[in-house]
Write a structure and sequence with these properties.
Elements lengths: L2 H18 L6 H20 L20 H8 L5 H7 L10 E6 L1 H16 L4 E6 L5 H5 L2 H10 L3 E5 L2 H4 L5 H17 L4 E5 L11 H8 L2 E3 L17 H15 L1
Parallel strand pairs: 1-2, 1-3, 3-4, 4-5
Helix pairs in contact: 1-2, 3-11, 5-11, 9-10
C-alpha cells in the first residue's frame, strides 16, 4: 500500500470515529495530531501540495492548500458574508510579518495558518500557542515581550478569550486591566492587531470577548461560524481548524 493511501484511509477512519462515538474522550485530539503527522510526512515525500493537516474524506487527490477550498469545502459559515462585508480588517501581503499567539485555539490554528502563509508567499510567519492560557498571563509573558522586539511583526493575530470566559462571573471586570495593557503593548509596535474571538462556547460567556471586540483595533467574529468540533464540544476538530483558518485568511486577503 502506498504511504499516502495508508494515511488517507487511517486518517479518514479516525475522523469518522470522532463523528460517530464519544467512547474515547481524547479521540478528537488523537485524530488532530494524526492529521498533523500525516501532513509532515507527506509533505516530505510529495512536497507542499500534499499538506493534509486539512485532512478530510472528501479531499481531492490534486488538493493543494487553497483558501477558497478551505472556505467552501469544510465550513458552513452562517455569518461569514456579514463578517467580510461589515467589519474593517487589515490586509495580509507577501511582505507581512505575521505573528499568531494565544491559547489552545492558537495551537490548533497554527499549522493551518502557517501553511496558508507559505502558499500565499508570506515568508515571515511565527505561531505560538500555550494550552490553557489567559489574557493576564500573556500580558506578563517574557516570551511575547522578547518576540515583539526580535520578530518585529507587522500583523499580530491574538487568539485568546476562551479560558478567560471560563472564569465565570466577574471575569470581564478582572481581566479588563490586563486586556488594556496587552493591547497597548501590541499596538505600540505599530503592527495591525487582530483579535480572533473564540467560537461559540459550550458554557455561558462572561463578557470578556465583548470587551476585546470593543477595544481591539480589529476583531474576527468566530462565533458566527459553524465550526466542526471534537468530542469535547469545545475545541474544533482538524476539519474545523482548517475551515476556521481558511475563513480568517480569506478575511485578511
Amino acid at each position: 500500500m502506498r504511504l499516502d493511501a495508508f494515511f488517507e484511509i487511517f486518517g479518514d477512519f479516525l475522523f469518522l470515529l470522532t463523528r460517530k462515538t464519544e467512547l474515547v474522550h481524547g479521540l478528537g485530539e488523537l485524530a488532530h495530531r494524526f492529521a498533523e503527522l500525516r501532513a509532515n510526512v507527506l509533505e516530505k515525500f510529495h512536497g507542499s501540495e500534499f499538506y493534509t493537516t486539512l485532512a478530510h474524506a472528501n479531499i481531492p487527490k490534486e488538493y493543494t492548500v487553497d483558501k477558497r477550498w478551505l472556505l467552501g469545502g469544510l465550513l458552513v459559515a452562517t455569518g461569514v458574508g456579514l463578517v467580510a462585508a461589515a467589519t474593517r480588517r487589515p490586509r495580509v501581503t507577501p511582505e507581512s510579518r505575521v505573528l499568531l499567539f494565544g491559547d489552545s485555539m492558537a495551537v490548533g490554528l497554527d499549522p493551518h495558518m502557517r501553511a496558508l502563509a507559505t502558499e500565499t508567499g508570506v515568508e515571515d510567519y511565527l505561531g505560538h500557542g500555550i494550552v490553557g492560557t489567559r489574557i493576564d498571563q500573556w500580558d506578563k509573558s517574557p516570551w511575547l515581550d522578547e518576540t515583539l522586539q526580535s520578530f518585529r511583526p507587522t500583523l499580530i493575530l491574538v487568539s485568546l478569550g476562551t479560558n478567560d470566559e471560563a472564569l465565570g462571573q466577574g471575569a470581564a471586570l478582572r481581566q479588563e486591566p490586563y486586556l488594556d495593557d496587552l493591547l497597548e503593548k501590541l499596538e505600540s509596535t505599530g503592527a495591525d492587531v487582530v483579535w480572533i474571538g473564540p467560537p461559540e462556547l459550550p458554557f455561558p460567556r462572561a463578557g470578556v470577548s465583548d470587551l476585546a471586540r470593543d477595544k481591539a483595533p480589529y476583531y474576527f467574529r468566530s462565533e458566527l461560524l459553524d465550526i466542526p468540533r471534537s468530542p469535547d464540544g469545545l475545541h474544533p476538530n482538524a476539519a474545523g481548524y482548517a475551515g476556521w483558518s481558511g475563513n480568517i485568511w480569506r478575511w485578511l486577503s
